[in-house]
Amino acid sequence: MSHGAGLVRTTCSSGSALGPRAGAGPQGTSASEGLVDPVYPRTHGALLKVAQMVSLLIAFICVRSSPWISQSAYRYFEVVTICNLIMILAFYLVHLFRLYRVLTCISWPLSELLHYLIGTLLLLIASIVAASKSYSQSELVAASIFGFLATFLCLASVWLSYKISCVTQSTEMHLNRIK
C-alpha cells in the first residue's frame, strides 16, 4: 500500500469548465497557457483576497487620517494592516500569474495557511487594541471596525486554505486506500 505524496490544489482549476482547449485562439494556444490566469479573478478565493485588501486599505487610511492619542497602539495597527495587505497582494499575484507553477520549491497551500493563521491572530490583537484606545474618535472607530471586518475575512480564508490544503490531501489519500 503506497502512501506517496498526493496532488494538492491551491486554487480552482485554471482551465475553463469546457476543457483545456476551450479558449483556443487563432494560433492554437489555449487561454490557460498565457501569462495571466483569466479564470482566477472570478474565483471565491480571489474575490475574498480583494475584499481583504480593500478592508485593510480602508482601515490603514482611517488610522493615517486621524489624530492619534496612543502612538504605540496605532503604529502597531498600521504595521499589521500594511503587512497583511502586502502579503495578501503577493499571494493574489502568485495565483494570478501562476507563479506556483514556476516556484515549486515552496509549498504554496501551506505558506498561505500559515500566513493567514499568523496574520489573522495579529490583526485580531491589533483591532482589539485599536478599539480599546479609540476614545470615541470616529476615524479610529472606523479603523477598528474595518480591522475586525478584515479579521473575519481572514478567518474565512483560513478555513478555505485549510479546506483546500488538508482536506483535499486526506480525501485523496483515502481514495488511494480504497483502490
The largest pleated sheet is described as: none
Radius of gyration: 20 Å
User: What fraction of residues sit in β-strands?
Assistant: under 5%
CA-CA gap between termini? 10 Å
Tally of alpha and pi helices: 5
Q: What is the overall shape? A: elongated
- Let me know the number of strands: 0
Q: List unreliable stretches of 5+ residues.
A: 1-8, 10-29
Question: Structural class, from helix and strand content?
Answer: mainly alpha
Mean pLDDT: 81
Could you spell the SSE succession in H and E letters? HHHHH
Helical amount: 55-70%
Notes on the structure:
This protein is mostly helical. It is 65% helix and 0% strand. The protein has five helices and no strands. Helix 2 packs antiparallel against helix 4. The longest helix is centred in the C-terminal third of the chain and has 41 residues. It is elongated, with a radius of gyration of 20 Å.
